[in-house]
Every structure is written in structure tokens, then in C-alpha cells.
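DNA ligase (ATP)
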Amino acid sequence: MSRRAKPLLQDEQFLKSKPARPRDPAQPNLPLDPMPDRIEPCLALLKTHPPKGPDWAFEVKWDGYRLAIHIEPKGVRIITRGGHDWTHRFPAIAEAAKKLGVGTAILDGEAVVLDDKGRSDFGALQRSLGGRGGKRTSTESVFFAFDLLYFDGHDLTGSELAVRRHLLEDFLDGATGAIQLSEEVYGDGAVLLENACSMGLEGIIAKHRDRPYRPGRTGDWLKIKCVESESFMIVGYEQSTVARGGIGSLLLAGRRGHDWVYVGSVGTGFNTKDAEYLRTTLDKLKTKRPAVALKGKNLVFAQPTLIAEIEFRGWTHEGNLRHASYKGLREIQDNAAVFDMTEKPAG
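C-alpha cells:
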């Protein structure tokens, strides 16, 4: 596998990651830290505009599955965001990790499938895995590493991002196979975002260079999107006698605390095969106690179990998604976070 994905780097006004400095052989030997079984991931906080100033680094926003690769003395483990072992689902990535030539490391990154223009395609990734609940192994996936949390016996989570990136770039220098470096790009965030959007990318990620690795949405990492895409719970569907698969639209909800909040419906983005699968699955989850207070003809309510990735163009004044389009289902093992309504932009 040799496909590279650096669409932002094709523009000469942006530079790729700065060359790593050679390691200092005179640096002291530090005591070894115990290798953690799992590290809760740092998550990006949604913002409408990129930050300004030299303290921020930028990367492409990948559209795939967040994974952590644990390279351990006894072998390699690939762990999902929710803590599930998916080593068997990504054999090419696991094999590439074994060949990196390091005793211990934890790489944080995203598994994606690239289209012919080097852009990540979530639908293609889902298909490569056999869809939700599928048993296939994805041989065409590429893991783009964007952080190094543990390396050569040392816990790096307390170090600032600039140090972690320096080590990561040195570690993955020139890697072109199933594991590659998620390149850092330099330039004005607003121009970078415009460039990314013009290329059909999902958006960019901004990371504060001086911050340690902290779990959750702390604001150390920010995501700025060209087209908004979030995970919502499917709480039912609208029956149709003419639409493909008998589904006119899917009913969606976001989360507010322990409650579900209706955010509208989506009737585009799925084909007949998708619709048939969704209807069969949702019919098995039918309930007479809907998760949201909603009335209407031909509505079938389902237990909140299926999580859909939805692309949309903003919010209406009523709090519904504008121009929503279905992209695919998220896996439970991926620990997809259903959209938190407290993150919805005001207005």
C-alpha cells in the first residue's frame, strides 16, 4: 500500500512537518513508566472558526474510526475509542505496527479508507468492514497517526504536544504503508480551512502546541468543519409505500444529559439496500414508548440503539438539522458519541 493523503500539502503555500532534530545521544536515561492498558482519548471541541496565533498546529480532519495502536512486548493490540479490541478487524495495520521496530509504543490516530483523490471516505470504510456488525477485515484501511502517547517505556501524556509530535515525526519518518504520519501543516487557519473545503475535505483540526494530552473535550484540540457531520441516535422511522425499502425518513435525536432531544429526520443518503437493512433492524427494536415526544402518521418508534453518522448544513431556528444526509452507521465498539446538544452553536 503506497497511497498517500496529503491534499492540503499540494498547495505550495503550506509546508509539511518540519524535519525532526536528531536525537541527542547524551540525554539521560529516564526511569521506565508502566505501560497503561488503555488511555482515554483526547477529543476535539467543535468550533465554527479556526483559532489564530503561533500556539496552534493544524492537521487534516480524518473521517474514519478513532483507534489506539498498542505495541507491546507480547504483540500488537488495536483498541477502539470505546476500549474494544479490534486487532482482528485491521490486519494490515496490525502487521505494519509489528514492523515499526520499537519495543513499546501507543499511537493515537484514525483508521480511514481513501478515495482516488486521497480523501477519507467513511462510507467506504464501513463497507470494507462489512457494515454495522459486519465481520469483515479491512485490508485497505490506512492508519494516520497524529499523536504518540507512550514510547520506549516512557509515558508521554504529560509532555506538551510539540514534544510528542517531534518524537512521532522521527518515529514515522517516511512511512508510506498501512501506518502513516498525519502531517502537520503550517499557515493561517482560516486560509487552511478554505483550502480544505475547496478540496472536498471534511475540515481541519487545531491543536494547542503547549498542552499535555488530556482526555475529553478540554479545548486543547478543536475541530472546524467544512460541512458539519455528527453522530445522532435513530429513534424511529417514517413509513413509506413508495420510498426505497419502505423508509421515507429516519427520525434522529441528540443527547442532553440523560434525555433524548429530537433534531429532525433524514431521508437522503441511503440506497435501497441500506433502507432494507435499517427497516429490518429497526423493526426488531420497535417500542411503544418513544424516546422523543413526537406525533404523526406512519411513524414507527424504535429503542435508541442504532447510531447514524449524519452530514448536515447547520441548524434551523426550531433546532432541527438543515439539509441532513445519511452517511452510515457507527459501531457500538467505536463508542461513537451521540451529539451533545450543549455543543450546538447558539442561534
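Residues 12-20 have pLDDT under 50 and may be disordered.
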